[in-house]
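PROTEIN DESIGN WORKSHEET
SECTION A - STRUCTURE
LENGTH: 197
C-ALPHA CELLS:
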C-alpha cells in the first residue's frame, strides 16, 4: 500500500519465505500449504504478533491472507487491543469461484521479485520470464488445480464466516473484485478514504 505509506503484510509471503529459507517454520508450514490446507492458527498468529512489533506498522498496515479463521480474528483483536489499536476496515473482494479458480491456476510468479503474472489475463512479454527483472516465472505449489479446489472448500468451511464476524463491528467494505486490478484498487482507495488511522 505505497499510496498510504504503510506496509503490506502477507502471511503467505512470510510463510513462503520461510519455506524457501528452509527454516523449521517453513518445513512445518509447507506440508499444509502444498495440500491447500490452512497453516495452524498458533503458527500464523505467532508470525503476525511478531510482525506487529516492527516499527513500520506504527502508522497502520494492510494484512493480506490473515485472519483466515475465527480464532485468528479473535487473536488479532486481542493483540491489537493490547497495543491500544483496532481493525479499522475489512475489504471483501467479491469474485465467483470459477473466476477465482481461473485466476489462481493461471497465476505465475517471479522467483526473484515475486511479481505476479497470469497466463491469460496478464501475460508477460516473453513467456516464462518476468517483465520487471528478467527472473524465471513459476507456478506456486498451492496454485495447482487440485490444491485450488481444496483451498476453495477450506475457504467455505473456515474463512467465509469471518465476514459475519467483522460485519458485527461495522468495518466491512464489499468490493467487486471481478474487474481489472486498476479498477479494483481505485475502489479500495475510495472505500478507505484519504487516511486510515
Ligand atoms: Zn521479477
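SECTION B - SEQUENCE
RESIDUE ASSIGNMENT:
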Amino acid at each position: 500500500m505505497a499510496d498510504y505509506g504503510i506496509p503490506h503484510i502477507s502471511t503467505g509471503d512470510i510463510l513462503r519465505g520461510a519455506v524457501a529459507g528452509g527454516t523449521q517454520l517453513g518445513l512445518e508450514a509447507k506440508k499444509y500449504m502444498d495440500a491447500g490446507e490452512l497453516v495452524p492458527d498458533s503458527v500464523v498468529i505467532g508470525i503476525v504478533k511478531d510482525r506487529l512489533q516492527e516499527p513500520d506498522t506504527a502508522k497502520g498496515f494492510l494484512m493480506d491472507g490473515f485472519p483466515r479463521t475465527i480464532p485468528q480474528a479473535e487473536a488479532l483483536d486481542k493483540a491489537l487491543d493490547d497495543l491500544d489499536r483496532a481493525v479499522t476496515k475489512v475489504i471483501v473482494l467479491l469474485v465467483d469461484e470459477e473466476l477465482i479458480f481461473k485466476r489462481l491456476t493461471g497465476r505465475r510468479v517471479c522467483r526473484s521479485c515475486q511479481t505476479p503474472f497470469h497466463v491469460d489475463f496478464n501475460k508477460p512479454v516473453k513467456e516464462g520470464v518476468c517483465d520487471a527483472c528478467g527472473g524465471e516465472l513459476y507456478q506456486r505449489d498451492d496454485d495447482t488445480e487440485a490444491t485450488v479446489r481444496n483451498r476453495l472448500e477450506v475457504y467455505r468451511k473456515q474463512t467465509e464466516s469471518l465476514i459475519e464476524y467483522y460485519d458485527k463491528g461495522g468495518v466491512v467494505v464489499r468490493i467487486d473484485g471481478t474487474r481489472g486490478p486498476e479498477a479494483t484498487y481505485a475502489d479500495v482507495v475510495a472505500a478507505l478514504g484519504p487516511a486510515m488511522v
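SECTION C - NOTES
The mean pLDDT is 92.
The radius of gyration is 17 Å.
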